[in-house]
Specification:
188 residues; alpha+beta; Alpha-D-Glucose-1,6-Bisphosphate, Chain A, domain 4; seven-stranded antiparallel sheet; 7 strands
């Protein structure tokens, strides 16, 4: 019995060492990117990206989450923090903007000791606008291990693509003359 236990323990140690060794070969950085074409000009999309309060129109937080807005009202310096059972704790801050072209933000998840950057870029494409969402940053050792068992590109990318589809729908169903903030405050 003791010999079998010894062999099982050795095998288990070899598996753990193998997983750690394989994880160490993974890239030190990651980039996950998704795009969608929205049938609208950039000036109808950009306000929904630079104003975190406007995100509720296309990327709402789950009900019951505690959301706090601080810093600038919109654009560079705007900050959102959140806390809840579904989302955990985190924050995002807009760190750079190029009006009608790009919004860059930093996302922080303290519990996972993780942070990464997010870029939204807008580029004219025919009669519409190509919106590209990119998440990128350092690939922590724990993320490398997690990535052995789960595709971060698929998990994060599928969520990004779904939210981009929601952004497209929000913009394309918004009355052409309405600005995003006007639509939000309109009462029926």
């Amino acid at each position: 019995m003791g010999k079998v236990f010894g062999w099982v323990l050795v095998a288990l140690i070899l598996v753990v060492v193998g997983i750690f060794g394989y994880a160490a070969t993974k890239p030190d950085t990651f980039r996950i990117e998704r795009s969608i074409t929205v049938n609208a000009p950039a000036d109808r999309i950009y306000p929904l990206l630079e104003d975190f309060r406007a995100w509720e129109q296309w990327s709402p937080f789950p009900a019951g989450e505690k959301i706090t807005y601080s810093g600038a009202e919109k654009g560079k310096g705007a900050i959102t923090t959140w806390s809840g059972k579904t989302t955990g704790d985190g924050s995002r801050e807009i760190t750079e903007v190029t009006p009608m072209e790009m919004v860059r933000m930093k996302l922080v998840f303290p519990a996972m000791k993780a942070q990464f950057m997010v870029d939204f870029t807008l580029k004219r494409e025919g009669e519409g606008t190509r919106v590209t969402w990119a998440n990128y940053g350092s690939n922590t050792f724990m993320a490398k291990i997690f990535g052995i068992f789960m595709s971060m590109d698929k998990m994060m990318g599928d969520d990004m693509q779904g939210r981009l589809a929601s952004l497209k729908k929000a913009v394309e169903t918004m009355p052409a003359q309405a600005k995003p903030a006007e639509k939000k405050s309109r009462k029926k």
